[in-house]
Amino acid sequence: MKAKTILITGATSGIGEACARRFAGQGTRLILNGRNTAKLDELRRELEAAGSEVRTLPFDVRDREAMSSAVASLPEDWSEVDVLINNAGLSLGDDKEYEGSLEEWDTVIDTNVRALLAMTRLVVPGMVERGRGHIVNIGSIAGDTPYGGGGVYCASKAAVKALSDSLRIDLVDTPLRVTNVKPGKVETHFSVTRYHGDQARADAVYEGFEPLRGEDVAEVVYFAVSAPDHVQIAEVLVMPTAQATSTLCARKK
């Protein structure tokens, strides 16, 4: 039986890296994307040493031309992607919607929405043609319950939900499956990026309770992908036990 080929965007840290590690050695071949070539190469070497087949595609998902060229460069035996994990995403700042940076908002929308659409457009037609495939989009609880200071990020993750749902409808007459995984608070590099490298502010986001780890979300993704072909895990909201909404957490003093 041919090994599944899994393409993961944003694979050099957080949920994406955890997904790469979870799928490694499970009868899969990994195509890993990220902007940091050194980190990609380090991860590739580590996973190859553990017995996995790995290829890297270093590009910024906001660069559509680079994305297209990278996907087109895959050798024929690697080009048949079985699982696409649209993981690359970020938030920048927590300004009020009438005070935020237009440039930062462009970066968030280009990364979280336009890049997901572009990668889907590049990869999914081949899945349809072959009659097999699974698209996993990493959304967020923020797409369900917006909060102050996060309007554009929340809107981008609401778009991920809408795009996942509409793609599932578009593919209903095919064997393909679509899953939207919506994590709550996950302790990754996410908050450090959001607060422009301010580690103290990032740490405060997870203070007083046990947040999710990237590995927890990767386990959910693995479960969805591993389900029998007739089972479609359409949507999963996964949160720390101490979290109830986007903003409400029980924090120990």
TrEMBL record:
Q: Residue ranges of the Ketoreductase domain?
A: 4-185
Write out the entry's keywords from A to Z. Answer: Oxidoreductase
What GO molecular-function term can you cite, just one?
oxidoreductase activity, acting on the CH-OH group of donors, NAD or NADP as acceptor
- Family annotation (InterPro entries): KR_dom, NAD(P)-bd_dom_sf, Sc_DH/Rdtase_CS, SDR_fam
Q: Which SMART domains match?
A: PKS_KR (SM00822)
Which Pfam families would you find in this protein's record? adh_short
The record's family statement is: Belongs to the short-chain dehydrogenases/reductases (SDR) family.
Q: What is this protein called?
A: SDR family NAD(P)-dependent oxidoreductase
Organism name: Candidatus Cryptobacteroides avistercoris
